[in-house]
């Protein structure tokens, strides 16, 4: 349920309508009129949708699709969307650092927020702990035991390097939420986590990742989700877990089922990023949780 300190009788009435619909178990479209919710989407490529059809040319360097999950959420809720998600963004690019892109620098995403903002979604963090480069280092087309397991490399000496990176990153990520709250004091803030990219054991016959390395990569996402959920809970911020919603639709699934592109994508999408189908599913799940 989107909650907000009301600014007018119209907003109060809209909120009451939404509460009534939820109480009645209404699973249909939001009763709010278009424009009743001022929605700002913050985040990285998992939210932006690089290379997905209908790229937003207002900020070409961000590789942002007009059909990403924030667009799906906005349509479902009848919200007015300001989407400043940007591929390759790190947590600092939300708060106080201009992000350089091939088409020029873009302002900190926080600049899109105001006291009039009603809803904020946030998907950020994977670039802070180098998820994409870690995943690429786990690619191994050779059969075992030829080559090196990335799980063994990242856990050598009994130390889980990725888990340590996430642990060290989490406080700064939590501080980012504090700044979001300062800029949008009346908004409902929803953190949208990362999904199920690989099923248990992976699918080495289809994707060149050994089973133990597939499990390790998904465990990194689990660690990140748990860290984000904990920081969000400390601030009474909603965390929306999309792992179940994307389970069974990982990079091992067929092209008509996959919510994430494989290392060799079968459609326009960046490897290990949401497909068009994935954005639709994630957006529908997020909208359902917000209702």
UniProtKB/TrEMBL annotation:
GO terms for molecular function: hydrolase activity. Residues 41-281 form the SGNH hydrolase-type esterase domain. SUPFAM superfamilies: SGNH hydrolase. Keywords: Hydrolase, Signal. It comes from the Bacteria. It holds the Pfam family Lipase_GDSL_2. Transmembrane segments: none annotated. InterPro entries: SEST-like (IPR037460), SGNH_hydro (IPR013830), SGNH_hydro_sf (IPR036514). Residues 1-29 form the signal peptide. This is SGNH/GDSL hydrolase family protein. It comes from Rhodococcus oryzae. The lineage of its organism: Bacteria, Bacillati, Actinomycetota, Actinomycetes, Mycobacteriales.
């Amino acid at each position: 349920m989107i909650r907000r300190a009301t600014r007018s009788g119209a907003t109060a009435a809209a909120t009451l309508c939404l509460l009534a619909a939820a109480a009645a178990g209404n699973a249909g479209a939001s009763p709010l009129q278009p424009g009743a919710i001022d929605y700002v989407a913050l985040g990285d490529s998992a939210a932006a949708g690089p290379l997905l059809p209908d790229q937003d040319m207002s900020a070409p360097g961000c590789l942002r699709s007009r059909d990403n999950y924030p667009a799906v959420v906005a349509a479902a809720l009848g919200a007015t969307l300001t989407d400043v998600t940007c591929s390759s963004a790190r947590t600092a690019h939300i708060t106080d650092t201009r992000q350089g892109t091939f088409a020029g620098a873009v302002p900190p995403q926080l600049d899109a927020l105001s006291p009039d903002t009603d809803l904020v979604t946030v998907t950020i963090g994977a670039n802070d702990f180098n998820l994409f480069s870690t995943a690429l280092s786990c690619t191994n087309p050779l059969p075992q035991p030829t080559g090196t397991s990335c799980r063994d490399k990242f856990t050598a000496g009994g130390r889980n390097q990725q888990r340590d990176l996430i642990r060290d990153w989490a406080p700064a990520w939590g501080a980012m939420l504090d700044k979001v709250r300062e800029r949008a004091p009346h908004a409902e803030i929803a953190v949208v986590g990362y999904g199920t990219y690989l099923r248990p054991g992976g699918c080495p016959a289809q994707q060149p990742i050994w089973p133990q390395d597939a499990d390790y990569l998904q465990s990194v996402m689990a660690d990140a989700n748990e860290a984000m959920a904990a920081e969000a809970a400390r601030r009474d911020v909603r965390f929306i877990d999309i792992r179940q919603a994307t389970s069974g639709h990982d990079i091992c699934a067929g092209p008509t089922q996959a919510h994430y592109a494989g290392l060799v994508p079968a459609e326009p999408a960046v490897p290990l990023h949401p497909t068009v189908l994935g954005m639709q599913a994630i957006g529908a799940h997020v909208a359902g949780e917000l209702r």
